[in-house]
């Protein structure tokens, strides 16, 4: 029962687990027995060959470990490294971060090689299955719990949980990567890409630019940066929110009457209403479209210090770094209209015009490529976490792109 487990709050005070919500209890019951096996028993990295709930030896190479990123606070980031199942000596290495912030990457979500077998929870350990659409089919993956406080990443000093934001997030990841590649020199020559979804999609180009600046200063012989990959990315700019109303109308979520009232009263700006009528319309929109969905608890304060990541996208692609930006076309959080709008704002010429891309003889979405080495892709039927919703399509997309093949 829940009374057998105990957790601690941020001040170290013990509290029974049954004071938490039911969803958290179920999640911990499922995940804790599994991840305990993943934790390294000592500071050096550990190779994990077996997991409870999965029969036999893991069909891929899994390494876990901690890397210190702040000596003063004792902050350490926890990672999972899944080696490419194709050609690890030459295949790319991608850092993949999950949205949030404060959402653990793990190996059971998005691009990772394992999946839970969905079944009614009966109190026993869940069964695990191999994910046939893991991105490890084509690339080695570093799954990182970042920022500090995410998943198993922690700080020994409570001060390490203060002032967490975009700046510390990006610098800690940069320190992590420098140390990780120093400890894994075998991968230093492999093409490297920074990647992430949702809020991590905001941080990915920021981190990539830090790496590129170190390369230009001659400080970065260890990381062979080639570009970045972001899915349903947050930018922090007005683009993110301003296309929600047109998108909601386009997919039939709100009525013609409400949309026409929004156009008439808000005059194309759906973020900061300038009069009462616009505010009333947007309030009605918010109450038709918002439901409760909780995957990550945000008990640690986080500061979004970078107002917009769009300039980082522009800077990187202008310098010749490749970028893959993909969006599920059923995402109301960051509609694909929003993402394509800021991409078009760069005014780069088109080298491969808007067209369908296919998988198994069916349209899997649409794509367009610009002269600044940026490819934009929609995932047909994908939501905000399109890799989870359309794993086969997303694997085909990233494999073709990484292999420099047309979608």
Features:
Rossmann fold, 29% helix, globular, 11 helices, single chain, disulfide bond, two-stranded antiparallel sheet, 407 residues, acyltransferase activity, transferring groups other than amino-acyl groups, EC 3.4.16.6, AB_hydrolase_fold, twelve-stranded mixed β-sheet
Give an overview in words:
This protein has helices at 22-35, 166-183, 199-216, 239-242, 244-250, 256-266, 276-289, 310-318, 336-344, 386-389, 391-402; strands spanning 6-8, 14-16, 46-48, 62-70, 75-82, 93-97, 114-116, 128-130, 140-144, 154-155, 192-197, 225-231, 322-328, 350-359, 362-370, 374-379. By secondary structure, it is an alpha/beta fold. Helix 3 (199-216) links the parallel strand 11 and strand 12. Helix 2 crosses helix 3 and helix 6 (256-266) packs antiparallel against helix 7. The longest helix is centred in the middle third of the chain and has 18 residues, at 166-183. This is carboxypeptidase D. One of its GO terms (molecular function) is serine-type carboxypeptidase activity.
Can you lay out the helices and strands and say which pair or pack?
Elements: E1 6-8, E2 14-16, H1 22-35, E3 46-48, E4 62-70, E5 75-82, E6 93-97, E7 114-116, E8 128-130, E9 140-144, E10 154-155, H2 166-183, E11 192-197, H3 199-216, E12 225-231, H4 239-242, H5 244-250, H6 256-266, H7 276-289, H8 310-318, E13 322-328, H9 336-344, E14 350-359, E15 362-370, E16 374-379, H10 386-389, H11 391-402
Parallel strand pairs: 6-9, 6-11, 11-12, 12-13, 13-16
Antiparallel strand pairs: 1-2, 3-4, 4-5, 5-9, 5-10, 7-8, 14-15, 15-16
